[in-house]
Design brief:
Length: 763
């Protein structure tokens, strides 16, 4: 009996219950969908690291002999040590790509992951195991020969296998902003393949049972005790999390987590409030039925469970379907784009217990809302419940006691009183529009940020036409010759480590003198002049370390463990390169040899220049930026779709609920002579007004969401702001959606049965 009653109630209030189902479905669809992509990325990365025994830390130097290796190995905190000789080589292929060669005696740490051709054979003097993605870009296969040159030596090797490496999940680009495997790759070779008798092992791969910062202190103490002053001064320690590969992909994961968390907060609150409103209305309309059921012997417990089941089943089914469908769809939208940036052997979506926890919270929340709606009536005696509920008393509001009230038209007065009688429904509609606005502002604000960064980077700051990336072994005379020939500006970039306020992080040192080709700007993109003799830090670095002008920092070059103390003289803004910028004079004062790594010029250079490894034109760099922002654009599209879905579901369900609540009033007005167009205007004014107020409240809230997204990246910096165009587009979308939904609802006015409507009790 009660089950049939539930089905009948759901049919009579189908749009409200569909809205509840959709809100729970969309919540888990978005949360589990984006969450599966993020969780899958993290799980696949962790699995890959575990399977390949990823190094916890690296030490870079000139030549680590067997004695040093044994001393590292004998540390109780060390669980594994391996040596490699790593050198950058030029491949004799189209575009002269750079191949990072690794000569190794064994490979138990950061193990090569074979895709084709099997594992490394350490007795093979003629073989090379090549980066599979580089080989694909260059149409190379197992059995092909490849010629490579480094340090004046040319070697010819046969490709024995193709594969991946956990040290190259993200390959630091040699050209542009993202990896392009036509220009770069890596190769693994046996020590026996090295063309010489003594291999200068310059890299240690370490695993430890301590966290990497404590392990650094342990290794430093050991080196000091052993008297390895030359290693301390000439080597550098890098924890895994500071490597460009791991840092980049972890940064990506952090940004996606922010978006995954946004959806439950917005959608769950609105879904539960819609449920509370709907259940309150159903229960109030069924007072007589409840009284009758109690009078014929039904106890309170089965009646309470009956009404609790409405929200329970709808949110349970919606949540379960949302998890399943979201898990099976959204992660695959991102796969192709993510594969273009990162290299992993597996891209399966992941699953988190948080999906189930959020679903349980929604279901429990629906049960609580249903209980609040029914509890007060169930407690009443059957005789009291059989009586009709007294109509709401319309209290005189503050505005009705002012002179303004008499100057308002009938339309506004009617809607103000209707809102005051149905505050909860109005608040839910307002929250729905605020949520819609926040999502739209976040989406278009991200789009503004992405486009602004490109303009900021390649128009406001950099004014060169060509970037010439220099080879490592280039001589100073060659550099001077290129500068004169292209009328260029030399720039040096080096990896550094910065320490301040108990934070230690890897960043970039940029060295260049004042040039018309490079215009430093502050965080607001206003031109500024950097100090000639002091150091300047980027705005993002200042935020990460909590620094301001006048603060002290410590820093050192990788390859030199001597820490330098400096005072921050200025803070500049840069969208993509974070760290320290100094002049060549300042570099010399800090005992840093200024050897350019690139030269920028206003000229369009396309020919070969001796000592130049590659060329990047302005067009190449901007196209590289566009490729970099593909994932951001996908997220923007998803945010817009869910924003519109939220607005449609909330406005339509609540508008339909509101229509049934004022149907008697509308019938009365029709009897009094109001035309259909007048009633439509009356009906639409309220929700359009709520939409406008909700939009105005949502705009500043969107700022904080954007700021949360921005603050979760250590690599890129963009101010938290959005243009008037973004606000205007978001407003137009919100109002258009609201207007369309309300027009659909207003069409119901012509179908009002005035006789039946006037018989209804006022709710």
């Amino acid at each position: 009996m009660l089950f049939k009653k539930m089905l009948r109630d759901i049919k009579e209030n189908k749009m409200q219950f569909i809205a509840i189902f959709l809100m729970s479905f969309i919540t888990l669809f978005a949360f589990a969908g984006i969450g599966s992509e993020v969780q899958g990325l993290q799980d696949n990365l962790n699995s890959y690291y575990n399977e390949t025994n990823m190094a916890d830390a690296y030490v870079f130097g000139n030549d680590f002999n067997e004695s040093v290796v044994n001393d590292f190995k004998n540390l109780s905190s060390t669980t594994g040590v391996e040596t490699q000789f790593v050198v950058k080589s030029d491949a004799d292929l189209e575009n002269d790509p750079i191949v990072m060669l690794h000569f190794l005696e064994k490979n138990n740490i950061s193990k090569y992951y074979p895709v084709e051709g099997g594992h490394i054979d350490f007795s093979d003097e003629d073989g090379i195991w090549l980066d599979a993605r580089f080989a694909e870009a260059k149409n190379l296969t197992v059995g092909d020969n490849i010629s490579l040159s480094f340090n004046g030596i040319t070697i010819n090797k046969t490709i024995r296998g193709l594969g991946y490496s956990p040290d190259y999940v993200y390959e630091q680009p040699e050209n542009g902003l993202i990896s392009d495997f036509k220009y770069q790759g890596f190769g693994y070779l046996s020590d026996k393949a090295y063309p010489g008798s003594e291999i200068p092992h310059n890299k240690l791969l370490l695993t430890t049972n301590l966290n990497t910062h404590d392990y650094y202190d342990d290794t430093r103490e050991m080196l000091e005790d052993k008297g390895y002053d030359d290693i301390i001064d000439g080597a550098s320690y890098m924890p895994r999390e500071d490597s460009s590969s791991d840092d980049q992909i972890q940064d990506e994961i952090k940004q996606h987590i922010v978006l995954a968390v946004m959806f439950p907060i917005i959608f769950v609150v609105v879904a539960l409030l819609i449920l509370l409103t709907t259940m309150t209305r159903i229960v109030n309309r069924q007072r007589t039925q409840i009284g009758t059921l109690k009078a014929i012997g039904f106890e309170d417990r089965p009646l309470i469970l009956h009404y609790l089941s409405y929200g329970f089943y709808l949110t349970l089914i919606g949540s379960v379907l949302g998890i399943i469908i979201g898990h099976k769809t959204i992660p695959y939208i991102f796969v192709d784009t993510m594969k273009s940036y990162y290299t992993l052997p597996c891209w399966d979506p992941g699953f988190s217990i948080n999906f189930i926890i959020v679903a349980i919270l929604i279901v429990l929340g629906s049960v609580l809302c249903s209980y609040f709606a029914v509890a007060s009536i169930i407690r009443e005696s059957p005789s009291a419940t059989l009586k009709a509920k007294p109509p709401k008393i319309s209290k005189i509001g503050f505005i009705e006691n002012t002179r303004i009230w008499n100057k308002l038209g009938f339309n506004l007065r009617w809607n103000i009183r209707d809102i005051s009688r149905n505050k909860l429904r109005s608040v839910i509609a307002l929250l729905g529009i605020i949520g819609c606005t926040v999502l739209l502002i976040s989406a278009f604000g991200m789009h503004d940020g992405v486009n602004d960064l490109k303009t900021w980077k390649y128009d406001d700051i950099n004014h060169y036409e060509t970037q010439l990336v220099l080879q490592d072994n280039i001589s100073q005379s060659q550099i001077d010759s290129i500068i004169d020939e292209v009328n260029g500006t030399p720039i040096m970039t080096k990896t550094i480590q910065i320490k301040a306020n108990d934070i230690k992080m890897t960043q970039i040192l940029t060295v260049h003198d004042k040039s018309p080709l490079i215009t430093p700007t502050d965080k607001n993109r206003h031109e500024m002049t950097l100090p000639k003799d002091g150091i300047s830090i980027s705005q993002k670095t200042a935020e990460l370390f909590g620094l301001k002008v006048g603060d002290e920092i410590e820093w050192h070059l990788y390859g030199n463990e001597t820490w330098m103390n400096s005072t921050v003289e200025a803070i500049y803004g840069d969208p993509s390169v974070q760290g320290i910028t100094i002049t060549s004079d300042c570099a010399e004062k800090n005992n840093i040899s200024f050897k350019p790594t690139e030269i920028v010029t206003k000229e369009d250079i396309t020919g070969n220049l001796d000592g130049v490894g590659s060329f990047n034109s302005h067009k190449d760099l901007t196209e590289s930026w566009d490729k970099l922002t593909k994932t951001a654009n996908l997220l923007i599209i998803i945010l817009v779709i869910f924003a519109i879905a939220l607005a449609v579901v909330v406005l339509y369900s609540l508008g339909l609920l509101g229509f049934t609540e004022v149907e008697r009033d509308m019938a009365t007005l029709k009897v009094l002579g109001f035309q259909l167009k007048d009633l439509r205007k009356l009906f639409m004014t309220q929700y359009l007004g709520i939409s406008i107020v909700g939009f105005l409240l949502g705009v500043p809230m969107g700022y904080y969401v954007l700021d949360a997204i921005r603050s979760n990246t250590d690599v890129f910096y963009y101010p938290t702001n959005y243009s008037l165009t973004t606000i205007a587009i978001s407003f137009v979308i919100t109002i258009i959606v609201s207007a369309i939904v309300n027009l659909l609802l207003a069409n119901n006015l012509k179908n009002i049965d005035m006789v039946e409507a006037l018989k209804k009790e006022r709710e």
